Amino acid sequence: MARRTASLLPQWSSRIFSVELDGAPHYFAIKEKHRGEEVPRLFTLKARHYERCYSLLVCSSDRVRRAKFYGELKDKLLRHLSPESDLSPMSSFLPDVKDSLVRGYFFKGDSQSSSSTERLLQELIQRDPVLVCSYLRGEDGQLWTQRLWPPAESQMTEMSKDYYVVPSEAPKYHPSVLNIVNSDVFYSFEEAYEVLKKCGDIIPEAKSVLELLPSGAETRSKPDFPVIVIEGLDATGKTTLTESLRDTLEAVLLQSPPQCLSPWRARFDQEPPLIRRAFYALGNYITAEQIGQQGMKTPVIVDRFWHSTAAYAIATAVSGPLSNLPAEGSEVYRWPSDLLQPNLVVLLTLDPEERKRRLRNRGQGKTEEEQELDHNQLFRLRVEEAYRRISGPSCITVDASPSADQVLQQVLLLIRGKCHL
What we know:
Shape: elongated
Distance between the termini: 58 Å
Order of helices and strands: HEEHEHEEHEEEHHEHEHHEHEHHHEH
Strand order of the largest sheet: 1-2-8-7-6-3-5-4
Oligomer: single chain
Largest sheet: 8 strands, antiparallel, barrel
Structural class: alpha/beta
Number of strands: 13
Number of helices: 14
């Protein structure tokens, strides 16, 4: 803990802090001297009638432990804090510096329970990988200051300073973008493998998954026959189309995540994003091995592949409007260099209301992310835009609103043109 904390301190006053209220980030910075800046909007909205607030940032140098503890910390705080504390997600980062983002929580301090709250925070500092700050309203009722709490074993002078809390402009892109690479989206077999390998002692099922994995070379061998991937949100007609293509082209139909991972999907869906995304990333490499084997004998149709894994992960990590997404051409949209590339990727699109109607008619249970698509229009737009920005290969969009046969004929034309089948 002390080593990780010490690494954050030299540029502490250069950091930006973000607290999410109702899904929107509110940014503030800190300065050693106050020059007449206004009170950050966060403090006028969240702490208008309070004299004190607190934040905790998870600082473990072990990113698997950090990811697990971040989720566990929320449950611990909700159990011990009063409902009036109004716990909110928080992060801190250095602008434009990759992997500088650290996550935590921000909450109001109730004067009636401040002593018990501070006892809880002191206990956390002594046992857990957290960095605690308190925020105090000045005597004039306006200025707020931030103070870092030193760990019990440390007397670092940098951590006894008071900083003034001042407004900060929003960064060009959502701060989560800084940590997406190989945390939310994985770009190599080895990176995803290392995460699951470190989980072996805390998630027994991880060992079973690792036993199914191919070698890196087996996931990028180029098959003799074309590989066509069909992408799209649920209820856009992927299943109907993929089955029709299989029959028409006398092809093999595969899916990602592969069927062999089904026994463990529910288990890993409960894990924090780092672990969950590594699990699904490795599923793509298992599918790639299957593609390589089957593609030596016949064309291969794949129901979802890396595009889905990446698009949903990016859209989940980055909240807010489309402008918060990484810019087109960003490295977060690049295809992994060690993963087999399909010959053609078709993205089925559908009017949102028609898609919802089809989902209702199906009457099937939905994943948490599909439920989010239904009630959060911005999330759906981010997923669709992330699909479109992925390159190497890019998606070719096909309108799925005509009849199933018309969609099939349109996709067959694309396949004949691109794959010469």
